């Protein structure tokens, strides 16, 4: 049916006649569900571009026209959903997945819900692999940050290995635009990976991790276990990540009970992989520290102050006897917690 959007109705009727088909046979009998992803040219114009896009060449007006025609082509199908651009791109993709898994009756938890968000926690202590109570898969992962030609952009490579087999990913993280951060991930070949490594940024150390993936109570989790060689700030660091639609209290109550959760560090730049990988001490390289991808408006004094606070938070969480309220997420304006403060644990 998509083809009918790009040719005249007369030409389409000739094709149907030649193949002895009707519209309904092509749409209803072939497809159980139609999801139309509206073009960024309608409602998200700032994100519509033909740069670095081999398959896109239409100007914005032509893109709008073709989007409308493609949507019209499927209007008679009994099950059509249209995903517009009222939300950010990640939510748009999650809405797509949410529609599809509900249509086919699969329960995937919160991971792909439209309003899903990523949460991150510091974990203290890990039981031996033989005592880990649920099935898991470990991947050996190494990240390299690359020089970026564009200000505010972060580019990195990832190599992920299991049983001696590796996959490679190139990621570009762009500055915030209209409150959302665009991150483009692209699988690449081993040859491209090797060539791109020549552009690594030596201001950043490579990041070595064991990434453990597991399911608990229909929720997917990832443990990032930082490995040597690494900066001293990363030694012994273990971070738990998941995607959820729940509030902070509900998230904490549902976390795997076999993991000792120390602190909620969701959104805290002190626990960003980009900042953790900076080769020099943070206070010596405050201009490299990334608070957020749109933080160009901060003064140098503010930058140094924020870096000092981030260093304090990182050191504080590594202290064995320090206890935090794990129900409370990072607040940039919050004063550092002293050891004498009264806080509660999980």
List keywords for this structure.
23% strand; 11 strands; 346 residues; alpha+beta; 24% helix; disordered C terminus
Written account of the structure:
The chain is of the alpha+beta class. The chain has eight helices and eleven strands. It has helices at 9-19, 23-27, 60-73, 89-104, 190-197, 248-254, 273-276, 300-318, and strands at residues 34-37, 80-83, 117-123, 136-146, 154-162, 165-173, 183-188, 207-216, 219-227, 238-244, 261-264. Strands 7-6-5-4-8-9-10-3-11 form a nine-stranded antiparallel β-sheet, covered by helices on one side. The protein has a two-stranded parallel ribbon with strand order 1-2. It is globular, with a radius of gyration of 24 Å.
Q: What is shown here, in short?
A:
The protein contains eight helices and eleven strands. By secondary structure, it is of the alpha+beta class.
- Percent of residues in helices: 10-25%
Largest beta sheet: what is the strand line-up?
7-6-5-4-8-9-10-3-11
Beta content comes to 15-25%
- Contiguous low-pLDDT stretches (5 residues minimum) are 294-298, 336-346
Alpha-beta content class: alpha+beta
The DSSP helix count reads 8
Distance between the termini: 55 Å
The outline comes out as: globular
